[in-house]
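Data deposition worksheet. Section B asks for the primary sequence of the deposited chain exactly as it was used as input, without tags or linkers unless they were present during the calculation. Section C holds the resulting structure in token form. Section D is free text for depositor observations; keep each observation to a single sentence. Incomplete worksheets are returned to the depositor.
Section A, Depositor: J.P.
Section B:
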Amino acid sequence: MDLGLKDKVAVVAGGSRGCGRAISVELAKEGAAVVLTGRQPDIVEATAEQIESTGGSALGVVADMTTTAGALEIIEAARRAFGAPDILVTNPPGPLPGDDYGRGFLNCSDEDFLRTNDQFIMSQVYLTREVIPSMMEKGWGRLVNIASICLKTPHHRDPLVLANLRVGIAGMMKTLAEEYGEHGITANIVATGPFRSELAEDYLRSQNVKDEAYYAQEVPVRRWGRPAEMGALVAFLCSEQAAFLTGETIRLDGGYSKSLF
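Section C:
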């Protein structure tokens, strides 16, 4: 299937490791020029080189997507290298190794909430604000946010701060879908379950989780998700074929969530 992404310009913020890397690789396979970001120079460079070694177009940018300066740096780099972005995928950095949010509401500090708001809400604001005008001019754009299944079904084991603030992303993306749909811009969320990635493994180690198979037992398909499966879904959401799909939170969790909607 031709997804219609040839010569599109895609920014994958948080696109150098794990599921983010799989998204960057898949978009490049479909012919998009990809600007991928991260905060570890060696990993960012390696992912960009991986894409280019297979004939794709990629640029790695080391920047912090949770700041206004970082967001501007990312989008300006894309404009200089390939042109104004047609696609924005945001894959926020968290939870990070060492984070311990599962302490209950009264034990979460103001700093916990403020920092997480920057990670998940403001990063989306900063980056989206930079790309919307040019998408409107082109009459075409794709916004995709990578979130967590805790957005749909918060669980007592989920980091409380993350579960609360991710709901704000759902409201924002729904609003963007409504406001900019007439300009050919779609906005969707992928709510993920447990995926096997470097970041997930780092986090589990930091939380002293010994039996990783325990999480898979709660998933109906009895396994963790594979990053390539994430890449395939996101590429479809960015495609011409998905032009009528917007304002949705799509669960990619192997059936983990028990809610109907």
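Section D:
The chain is about 45% helix and 15% strand.
Residues 110-138 form the longest helix (29 residues).
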